[in-house]
């Protein structure tokens, strides 16, 4: 059996799970999430624990077994605690602020960059150089954070750009320092 797939998922008291018509619906204090289930995976709920079983022992079924267990676990964590990604903006004059339903960023371009905030995601700017992305869907939070980072990824010479909080950017030596004298 899949080592991850065979572990039961503990269901917290304030979370309701319904399995119907090939979908898993999870409702918690922070919101609702729904995900379609593969026909090769069977979900059973017993004593506040969720068990996943697979139809056969083929390689595909084994991989789906662990995948769906991890996805359901992340959904439960999302509706109870939520997910957060933090981004830092580094550069002189670089800043960001939330204006209505858009994230307005000044990143050294000739124009400000407006990033529309999708539904189900909250973006905050506690400082002008810090962006906090929050939501209940782990995939969506990570995707939005990577899209914001992709607007101006950190460059390797001065380190300017948008990066994840705590991300290390290895700096390269510039052209002037790279030349050797004989």
Summarize the structure.
With 182 residues, this protein is of the alpha+beta class. 22% of the residues lie in helices and 38% in strands. It has 2 domains: 72 residues, Outer Surface Protein A, domain 3 (Alpha-Beta Complex), CATH 3.90.930.12; 82 residues, Outer Surface Protein A, domain 3 (Alpha-Beta Complex), CATH 3.90.930.
Assigned CATH architecture of the largest domain: Alpha-Beta Complex
Q: What string gives the helices and strands in order?
A: EEEEEEHEEEEEEHEH
Can you tell me the residue ranges where pLDDT is under 50 for at least 5 consecutive residues? none
| CATH C-level class of the largest domain | Alpha Beta
Q: What name does the CATH topology of the largest domain carry?
A: Outer Surface Protein A, domain 3
- Tell me the radius of gyration: 22 Å
Distance between the ends? 64 Å
Measured by DSSP, the beta-strand proportion falls in 35-45%
Would you count the extended β strands for me?
13
- The helix content is 10-25%
Task: Compute the number of helices.
Answer: 3
